[in-house]
What does this fold into?
Amino acid sequence: MVERTGITDREEVFKKLSEEGYENLYIWRDAPGVYYDWHTHPFDEVRWVLEGEITMGTEEGVITLKAGDRLNVPAGTRHWAKVGEEGVVYVCGSKRK
It folds into this structure.
């Protein structure tokens, strides 16, 4: 599920995700065109874009995330990702159930 928050302030994003119980929060950067093939994660994951854009696909569809967009990826969800032409900077985190 995508949430178009419009929030790109790193401190605000980290605070909000910490309050929601996300752990291991870090900032990740990818160069233009980087591609992650189909994979899953053992925990609920969040991706919150701070700069640039990334397209992510699941078996349910494809969505492009831009600055301020947040995507929650439930544990075990098969997905792939491709970084846009400008590269991307995003916050990653995990939540154990």
